[in-house]
Amino acid sequence: MNRLTIEHWRNAPRLTSFAAFFERTASGQGGAPDLAEPQLDMSMLDFDLEGAVFADTHRRLWGHFDNHYFASIPYRLEEECRLGAAILSFGLRTWARSASPTTIYTLGTGTGCLARTLATLGNGRIKALCCSPTAANRTSFFANRGSEHAHFFHGPFFELDDARYATDEDLLPFRSGFDVLLEDTTFQMYDRDRLKQLEFVVPRLRPGGLLVQVQKLAHEDRDIYEERERQKDELFKSRFFSTGHISEKKDEVLNTMTDLQVDLVTTIAALRAFFRYSVLTWNSGNFYTIVSSNSRASMVELISLMLKPAIPPGYCYENLPVAIVDTEVEALGPDLTWRSANTMMLLAPRRMAS
Fold first, then answer.
1. Per-residue pLDDT tens over the stretch 276-324
2. Interval 167-185: pLDDT, tens
C-alpha cells in the first residue's frame, strides 16, 4: 500500500475526531446505555443449542464497549451469536480437515469479544486475533482474555502489514494468513475507497478463506436511509438510551461517519474486483452482513451452518440469503440454505410461556 494512502488513513476520523469518544466509551466513562442493558432474545434463535453455548460464553467476556455496541444496532447481538456459532462450527471443521489450528481475524471489533469467544470455545483448535487503536479496548481484552489462543494487536488495521507479521512474535500463528477475516463497521471510519481497503486485507486470506463484513451502507434514496435511521433510533435504541444520549452520539460520531459510508452498488463493485462470490446473509435497516470468498465450497459451508436471520421482519428489507456477486458456470443459486435449529425442546416452551 502506498505511503499517501496510509497517511490518509492515519488522519481519518477514527484516529482523530472519533478517538476520544471510543476511548471514553471503551473505558466505561461514557457512552453506556443509561436506560437498560441489551439482553439476548434466545427465542429469535429458536432456542438453538449451538447458539446458546456461544451466547453464554460470549456474554461472560463482554467489556464496556460491548454494552454500547449491542444497544446501538437493532438485533446485532442476536446476529453476533448466530454468526459466531456458524463461524465456530466452520472453524472446527477447517481444523479437522487440516489437522492444524484455524486462524480467525476480527478487524476492528472493539474489545475483541468475538475473537475471545471463538478462541475460548475452540480451545486450541482456533487461534484468533483482533485489533483496535483504543487503549481501553486492549485493557478490556486482557482483563478477561478467556484463552491464551486469543491475541490482540493495539493499533489500526493498516499497521498490520507484512513487515509487522514477519517481526512480531505474538503474530507468529497468523503469518500464513487467515481462514476467516471479519471486518466490523471499521472501513467506514477511515475512507470511502473500499477498493484500497480490500486491497490491503484480502491478501491475508488463505486459499478457501472467507471475508465476513458487517457494514452500514448508504442508500441511493436519502429518504429511505433516514427512515431506517429513525426506526433504529426511535424503536430500538430508545429502549436502552435516553433521547439526549442518542442526540449526543449523532453529533459526536454518526454525522461524520455517514460521509464515509458507501452504497450497496459501490460495495458490490469493490467486492467483485477480489471475489467470485459475495452473499448478503443479514440485514437490519441500513446494516448488512456480507460473506465473500473465491471458494464456492467455503461459501456454501458457512451459510449452511447459519440459522435463519434472527430479526423481526419489519427491520429486514432483503430476501435473504441473496448472492450479490456470483458466477454463471458455478452459481451458488439453490445451494444457499440455512440450517435448522437444534432446538432445546424442554426449554423453549417454558421460556415462551414466561
1. 999 999 999 999 999 999 999 999 999 999 999 999 999 999 999 999 9
2. 999 999 999 999 999 999 9
Say how many domains are in the chain: 1
Q: How far is CA 156 from CA 9, 124, 135, 181, 199, in A?
A: 9, 26, 11, 15, 16
Q: For residue 24, what is its C-alpha cell?
A: 471514553
Reported residue count of the chain is: 354
For the record, the C-alpha cell of 77 comes out as 447481538
| 277 bridge partner residues | 293
Cell numbers found for residue 49: 443449542
φ/ψ of residue 197, rounded to 5: -65, -45
What's the rounded Cα separation, in Å, for the pair 32 and 28?
7
Parent domain of 147:
3-353
Check: CB of residue 157 under 8 Å from CB of residue 93.
Answer: no
Domain at 230, CATH number: 3.40.50.150
pTM for this one?
A: 0.95
The total of other beta-carbon atoms located within 10 Å of residue 125's CB is: 18
